[in-house]
Design a protein that fits this description.
Strand order of the largest sheet: 6-5-4-1-7
Structural class: alpha+beta
Distance between the termini: 42 Å
Oligomer: single chain
Number of domains: 2
CATH topology of the largest domain: Creatine Amidinohydrolase
Number of helices: 17
CATH architecture of the largest domain: Alpha-Beta Complex
Largest sheet: 5 strands, mixed
CATH superfamily of the largest domain: Creatinase/methionine aminopeptidase superfamily
Shape: globular
Strand content: 5-15%
Number of strands: 17
Radius of gyration: 24 Å
CATH class of the largest domain: Alpha Beta
């Protein structure tokens, strides 16, 4: 946790900004409810998944412990934490823990009440006609608790999340404080160590699960955990492949998409592609060089005030131009990108926000976080872009161009005759076995441009093949 004053200041900023969003009022009224996360049983009550606290809770209260809730009274200007003292059974089974009052001091709240009082406080506020504001719930137990307290159906709870609160929280969380950047640097640094270990150690004959296990080991050794389920695959053309059952075979390529979550909750997210043997094949090398060109085009264009959507389009133009040079695409690259022909080879967006979530604040709504009122395109590929709005100093986001040869998608487009004026399907046939590659790093928008987070990680073709020289 940070110093208690940090959480008090963030909550004060929340109240102030929320008030400015409501024209004609002298500040916001009602209460803001923050239900923290509880334990999640895997198959019975005492066998739980690894606990992960809600990210907005961590941002405003910092307490990484289950079974708590809080209310900010916008009229009183007071914050109440609902927490319990540890029971004797807790002491026996899990060891000493802070008291409820100590937790209250850690988060700099005004008062502390037992957990059972949270539901009663919500019901009392609703019964008195006061506005109860909350963020979109994503867990069924939270939906049930809010429904019971507010006298709503589950569907009413989900649709009743407060849009002004959502927008206010996004405006605060999307601009990272210096202390947050320090934590993000830690997470990215551990993530780099994870990727370097697999790049150096992976061998033909390994299973994908061995590579994934090495990722987890390096993270745990650093006192971190994974920020998302590792993608460690010989089938890089499957964008989110979590099946780790295949064998690494010499001549193929490997894609590792993995990130660490620091103990503070801040995430890293990197992707590395490399040959399973010591060197890329000629065609793999051609695709990898183009991938690095796309990446360089993206990072050179990052700047405050620039729409990330425009950066994405520049990368797509680089992709189409490069594939035309290789004889896979044809015609005018700009026209090909305009009509979406390039998306056969990159059907996803260029990046997403990163912070206390690896897809930062996605629980608050992807369009609300990444678009900020900009309409989302319905075009294939472009519709998957998670971040499109203008960049602002303090934002942290990924840059992750990819190039993929997806057999089923190619077959479908070819059968339908899609974009034949831009895609040479005959030439493409010889490239299908190349699979898929992606390169990803995490970047901070600055006042003058952008900078990479974490230590230097040379992913040039020469550096990657040097790291694989003993494979």
């Amino acid at each position: 946790m940070f110093d208690p004053i940090v959480y008090a200041a963030r909550r004060n900023a929340l109240v102030t900004r929320l008030g400015t969003r409501l024209p004609g009022r002298q500040g916001a009224s009602g209460i803001v409810a923050f239900p923290g996360n509880g334990e999640s049983p895997a198959n019975y009550a005492d066998n739980c998944h690894s606990f992960r606290q809600d990210s907005s809770w961590l941002y405003f209260f910092g307490i990484d412990a289950p079974g708590m809730a809080a209310i900010i009274d916008l009229d009183e200007g007071k914050t109440t934490l609902f927490a319990s003292d540890p029971a004797m059974s807790d002491l026996i089974w899990t060891g000493p823990a802070p008291s409820a009052a100590e937790y209250g001091s850690m988060a700099a709240v005004d008062r502390v009440l037992p957990p059972d009082a949270f539901r009663a406080a919500l019901a009392a506020a609703a019964g008195a006609g006061r506005r109860v504001r909350y963020l979109p719930p994503y867990r069924d137990d939270v939906v049930i608790a809010l429904a019971g307290a507010l006298g709503l159906q589950a569907s009413g709870v989900k649709s009743g999340a407060d849009p002004d609160l959502i927008a206010t929280v996004i405006s605060l969380r999307e601009i990272k404080e210096e202390r947050e950047i320090v934590e993000l640097e830690k997470a990215v640094g551990i993530s780099v160590d994870m990727h370097r270990a697999v790049l150096r150690e992976a061998r033909a004959g390994w299973t994908e699960s061995q590579a994934a296990a090495l990722v987890s080991y390096v993270a745990a050794q650093a006192g971190a955990r994974l920020s998302f389920s590792t993608i460690a695959t010989t089938k890089g053309e499957v964008l989110h492949n979590h099946d780790h059952s295949r064998i690494l075979e010499r001549g193929g390529s490997f894609l590792l998409d993995a990130g660490a979550e620091a103990p503070s909750g801040y995430a890293g997210d990197l992707t590395t592609s490399f040959p399973i043997g010591a060197r890329f094949s000629p065609r793999q090398a051609d695709i990898y060089r183009l991938l690095l060109r796309m990446f360089g085009r993206a990072t050179a264009a990052l700047a405050p005030g620039r729409a990330f959507l425009d950066v994405h389009r520049l990368v797509c133009l680089e992709l189409a131009s490069g594939l035309k040079e290789l004889g896979i695409m044809k015609g005018d690259p700009a026209e090909a990108v305009s009509c979406g022909a390039h998306a056969l080879f990159m059907p996803h967006g260029l990046g997403h926000m990163i912070g206390l979530d690896v897809h930062d604040m996605e629980a608050l709504g992807e369009d609300a976080v990444g678009y900020g009122g900009t309409p989302r395109s319905g075009q294939f590929g472009l519709s998957s872009l998670r971040l499109a709005k203008r960049l602002v100093p303090g934002m942290v986001h990924s840059v992750e161009p990819g190039i993929y040869f997806i057999p089923g998608l190619i077959d479908s487009w070819r059968a339908d005759g899609l974009h034949r004026e831009f895609i040479d399907y005959g030439a493409l046939e010889g490239w299908i076995g190349t699979g898929g590659m992606r390169n990803e790093e995490d970047w901070l928008v600055t006042e003058s441009g952008a900078r990479r987070l974490g230590p230097e990680f040379d992913k040039s073709l020469e550096a990657v093949e040097a790291a694989r020289s003993g494979a």
